[in-house]
Amino acid sequence: MGKGKGVKEYFDGYPKHVFFILGNEFCERFSFYGMKAILVIYMTRRLLIEDSQATAIYHAFNMLCYFTPIFGAILADGYLGKFKTILYISILYAIGNVVMAITALWTNIPGPMIGLVLIGIGTGGIKPCVSAFGGDQFRSDQVNQLTQFFSVFYFSINLGSLISMILTPILRGDVKCFGGDCYPLAFGVPAALMIVAIVLFVVGYRWYTNIPPSGNVMVDMMGAVGRALKNKCGGKFDKKDHWLDYAEDKYDHTFLNDVKAVFRVLLLFLPLPVFWALFDQQGSRWTLQAGTMNGDYGAFKLKPDQIQALNPVLVILLIPVFESVIFPLLTKCKIPHRPLQRMSMGMFLAALSFTITGFVQLGIDNAKPQPIPGGKAEMTFVNAHFNCKMEFRSPVYNGTLDVGQSHAISSIEKAQFNHTVKYGCEGQTKKTKAVQLKETRGNIFTVGQHGQDLQSVVHVQRPKAQEGRGKAAIRVINMVPNDKRIRIKFTIDTGATVEDIINSTYLSASKYVPGEPGRYTMKIRTQDTSADEAVKGSFEPKNGGVYLLVLQPDTSDQNKKMFTSHVLVEANSVAMIWQIPQYIIMTVGEILFSITGLSFAYEQSPASMKSVLQAAWLLTVAFGNAIVLIVAAAGSGGTGNQALEFFIFAIVMAVDLVIYIILGIRFKSYKSPLEDNKEDLSQAPNGVSATDGDLPYEMVDVANKDKIPGHEGLVNRVFDKSLENFDSREVCNL
């Protein structure tokens, strides 16, 4: 907003009904990015889908979202018009969101997959239409208001997506329902926002300007290509200089020259999907990596599906800096100042970010407790007595443990799997127990007291850490002498019940149950009582750790109960903030690559083909996700090593960069008949000055990966050379 200009003055002259469109876009983007933020976490933790398969599904969904805009645009421009296309496809979109929310009530894979297909068709189908429909509402003399509208449109998109990417993980993790994370609520809120988006859009119907469909240039282009191939293969025409010239019997020569210009740019687009293959892994592989890290910062606990909100935050902060400082400085210093050079730098930074990601993964792997190797076992000794120090004598451990203490012995050789343990209170007669350890497992030897007699129990089946699942694994052993069943209830510090564990009588053990990081208290209820009894003690499991809780007599009164906690597998120790450098570098690379690339594609296309090249740009995002889908379907690239996969992607990006540079050197830019004497557009600075090229204005939601000009906002400036003659309906007319 201008200096001294209030909200009312800023929006002065706006058609009032455009605010229904802005509200619609805010709600739709909230819905989409809120759902997408928790998608990988939902698949891996709730549906228990393996990481690589979840990654493949995530990128297949992304690919669908970027393929379907072409069909939505054809439907809007050639058949239904924008309003009906947006309305009908939005209803399909909302149904998909509702399906996601309802099917989250139970573990069910087909239901969410149906929901994702409907959402992918819905968001892609309306993507090319909403902003252009908003532009249709302005009169031809409202140039300034039109420009401001796209700025506000861009802001509403980023505001909706940013709020949802922070809020939805909170609804998922901090609110508990049905004994765990509340996915029905986390998906339900985006579903409700999508319904609100439709209502807002419909309310403005009576005031909208509806322009009837008038055909689609993409259909004409495909027709020309088909006609040229048919005539060339038919052999009925004289030899032509270019294969597209064979369509001259039906299509205008100027139109065919424009198509030729498009194909020259499309050749340059071939290496671009690799960048998006890396970029879009922020929502999949990077989120899964965050799930193996420690996000506990005292009062603030960062969730793995929240850190991806760092990208839109950085974009909003960095774009003004790049537009006002960095781009002018790069142009002045010429390092780099040309569009293809800047795009190359963006690709280089993407490779660098994945190199850093690989080193972060190596740090995670090195800090992670290693699996117990073959031929060895572990054993943990636990003193669950209420008032004596317990002595242990065995071939693997000789020591004394105070009440509630434990001691772990690792790397026990196979020759000592069968041995005898002597144990007893300090200075008293010892009991003897034969133990048989399980290979490659953690064995737990717990001693308590029943009357005057010491009782011991050996439990095995200790699991590995819950790698990548963002959970702790918790098991309870009941060492309280009691003939009745005991119901044990965990409560996290939010006040929500995590899960009930039903223990049988004395010396019994629960199954391992997952628990969110946080501070826990525990209550118990015996079989013949109706009230919960608070039990002394609390513990705070960390992400990825495995814990043993021992319910035992209270040290101050053995008729009461307490519990002690014991760490069996250490929690994830690498801080989640170590991901910040890779996010910063990738975001800077995105700004250099995406903004420059969109501007370049627009400048290098003839006036009749602007929408075609923007559609092609969008398809590079889809094909990039297809690359990740293929790699993920192979299971970590067939390596079984996540760090190696990150390094391989970085290398592939570097090789792809070399190919792109070679193609860029050979590229011949498009020149209209009026521009024959102008400087080669491919050598012009990227969008720094209002005199660079004939782009009316640049619009891109670079923060949220919706790479369609006009649909996702105005990037800080207006190109006014041809603005007076610019038709707003062309903005997103795919």
UniProtKB/TrEMBL annotation:
Q: Which Pfam families match?
A: PTR2
Would you identify the family this protein belongs to, as annotated? Belongs to the major facilitator superfamily. Proton-dependent oligopeptide transporter (POT/PTR) (TC 2.A.17) family.
Please provide, in alphabetical order, the Gene Ontology terms of the cellular component aspect for this entry.
membrane
Q: What is the superkingdom listed in this entry's lineage?
A: Eukaryota
User: SUPFAM superfamilies in the record, alphabetically?
Assistant: MFS general substrate transporter
Q: Which Gene3D superfamilies match?
A: MFS general substrate transporter like domains
Q: Report what the protein is called.
A: Uncharacterized protein
